[in-house]
Amino acid sequence: MSCLTYELTCPIGATGGVCRWSIICCDGTEQRISLLEGEVSLPCIDISATNFNGQPVQKNSISGTTTIIDVPCTSACGTYAPSPLPTPPTPPTPPTPPSPPTPAPTPAPQYCLGAENETTIQNISGGNKFVFGGNYGTYGTNVGTYVLKNVPAAHPIAFHNFNLTNVITYTGTTAVGPKVGLDGNTYTYYYGDVTLTVVGGYGTISYECYYHGYMGGENNLIYNSNTCSVPGAPTPTPPTPPTPPTPSTVPPVPSPVTTEYTLTYSDSVKGWPSFYSYIPEYMLGMNNYLYSFNGGNLYKHNTNETRNNFYGQQFNSQITSVFNQNPLENKVFKALNLESDSAWTVNMKTDIQDEGFIDYRWFEKKEGAYFAYLRKTNQTPAAADEYALRSANGIGKAASWSLQSNVLTVNFSTNPLVAIGNIISIGDYLYFSEPAYTTVKFAGQITNIEISLASGINRLFVNTNLSGAQPLSVADPYILYIKNVEAEALGMLGHQLNFTLTNENTTSTELFAIEADVMKSFP
User: Fold this and answer.
1) In sequence order, what E strands does 256-379 have?
2) What would the 3-class secondary structure string for 476-508 be?
3) Are 10 and 35 contacting, i.e. CB atoms less than 8 angstroms apart?
4) Cα angle 324-328-331, degrees, rounded to a multiple of 5
5) What global pTM score does this model have?
6) Structural contact between residues 478 and 310, judged by C-beta atoms closer than 8 angstroms
7) Exposure string over 85-123, b if 16+ CB within 10 A, otherwise e
8) Tens of pLDDT along 145-156?
9) 483 with 469: CB under 8 angstroms?
10) What's the CA gap between 81 and 89, in Å, rounded?
11) Which residues pair with residue 187 across a beta bridge?
């Protein structure tokens, strides 16, 4: 029998605070040894034993080291009691850092935003300001989702959330595009319904208009979880028919000019044919590809079939031009023809009449081209300047009328005859004027027309359950009507027609030409 001294060590920090071994002692007995962390044992072990997979020692714990000292011995196990490892010196206690200064309390806002907030523009203290929810002052939020309803296209809005996108983000129905804000950082501006999402405290931030600066928004939005409560979920909005957007000019030119643009140069035409909606930090061409940097990321352009998507933001295609042949003649612009492989939405304006509009769904495809007649942009109830339109027509005084369950019946005389006429259609809007006949009021939408002069029937039926409709109060009001904007085909009057085409497709679209059906106006 040959025996040697082994060193069994349980280190400081051992798993479970203890180390265990099974050994064959020099006297041939099997023993189990347990050491606490920091202890060492020097047993005398029979090196010829093969009890543990051919070895005289087996470790039974995760921690612990086994070392052969290679010193012959004859003593039995247990002769050497465990001895503790030397205790390492205690590291010095680091000094306690000074307490940070107590932050100033967050000011309380005057008004807390709700889940939905109607947006208006009001002249306050000599300047136009964004007004949310009907009252202007400092606004506040808690965490939650806040919708700013109907932000005007003439005042796209952005919120200064630079370096705060982890706690406050925003998006909207329609993006105007990126621009450097008044704080020197680049933001995307939206109009329509703009949604704020707050997940944490952001302090005090500003918001601004794309064209007109802060408009009362400098340091005017405050996070305050003590004053403002978490809003409920916004009320889902039912689907509505397409609303004609306000025409835009490409590019928009505020004054003074502070907007950045990305332009392209064409060597074949020796000019600058197009504007792009993205603002890169840096760009270069290499190996027939365009590369750009944004937000510290590298982008390779023209590598997929998705059009108008830059840095994850989807934009629309826009083309702005003018029909101005024979500029001294007054003309009636009747219809448009698009030589294109898809229909475009068209916004129009003349020097005499206000805006017109054609939704892309109103175009008809004939022989490979798209045709649509021009519609004047109306609002319901009509504004005072719309009563002079060619789509507005008078009928005469009513003989009598009755109202039952939101259905207004207007009767006209058959002898002498007050002719309703054949221009009026179901779906047109009825208006009336009462003595002294100086103001016009909205009555509702025409739902039926009945004319049988032989039977003494000469009347209109009108749905009065519309927003803005007012009741008749005299027996014989003067009756007039304005054609429905989708049915009205009287064109637009002016010396020239300015138009902007908009296409929302994300695939390749070609537009070869656009022509207008125009006739000379004879007043």
Assistant:
1) 262-266, 271-276, 282-286, 289-294, 297-300, 309-310, 313-314, 317-323, 331-340, 345-350, 356-358, 364-366, 369-373
2) CCEEEEECCCCCCCCCEEECCEEEEEEECCCCC
3) yes
4) 65
5) 0.43
6) no
7) eeeeeeeeeeeeeeeeeeeeebeebebbbbebbebebee
8) 999 999 999 899
9) no
10) 24
11) 179
**Quick check: 488 pLDDT over 80?**
no
- Which of 515, 496, 491 is closest to 328 using CA atoms? 496
Asked if 132 contacts 113 with a C-beta cutoff of 8 angstroms, the reply is yes
**Chain mean position to CA 142:** 20
Q: Are 178 and 187 in contact (CB under 8 A)?
A: yes
Phi-psi region of 41 (alpha: psi -120 to 50; beta: other; left: phi over 0): beta
In 3D, which of 521, 501, 514 has the Cα closest to residue 351?
521
Amino acid at position 43, single letter: P
In which region does residue 38 sit, left (phi positive, over 0), alpha (psi from -120 to 50) or beta (all else)? left
The DSSP annotation for 451-476 comes to: EEGGGTEEEEEEE--STT-----SSS
For residue 325, give both structure tokens. 């042949």
Task: State how far the alpha carbon of 411 is from the alpha carbons of 114, 189, 399, 477, 479, in Å.
Answer: 47, 52, 6, 11, 10
Residue 247 Cα to chain centre, angstroms? 20
DSSP letters for 158-222: EE--TT-TTTEEEEEEEEEEEEE-TTSSEEEEEEEEEEEEE-S---EE-EEETTTB-SS-TT-EE
pLDDT digits (tens, 9 = 90+) for 77-99: 754 444 444 455 555 666 665 55
Six-digit token string for 1: 């029998």
Q: Which residues contact 218 (CB under 8 A, 6 or more apart)?
A: 182, 206, 208
Max distance between CA atoms of the chain, in angstroms, equals: 142
> Which residue type, as a one-letter code, is found at position 251?
P
Tokens of 499: 């138009």
Nearest to 250 by CA among 281, 212, 276, 280: 276
Q: Distance between CA 296 and CA 232 in Å, rounded?
A: 37
3-state secondary structure of 362: helix
Exposure on the CB side of residue 96, measured as CA atoms within 13 A: 3
Separation of alpha carbons 147 and 197, rounded Å: 9
The Cα 484–Cα 427 span in angstroms is 6
pLDDT in tens, 244-297: 665 555 555 555 556 777 888 888 888 988 888 888 989 988 988 899 999 889
User: Do the Cβ atoms of 377 and 348 come closer than 8 Å?
Assistant: no
Mean pLDDT for all residues in the chain: 86
Residue 72 dihedral angles phi and psi, to the nearest 5°: -60, 145
**How far apart are the two ends of the chain, measured CA to CA in Å?**
131
Asked if 386 and 380 touch (Cβ cutoff 8 Å), the reply is no
Q: Compute the distance between CA of residue 254 and CA of residue 323 in angstroms, rounded to an integer.
A: 24
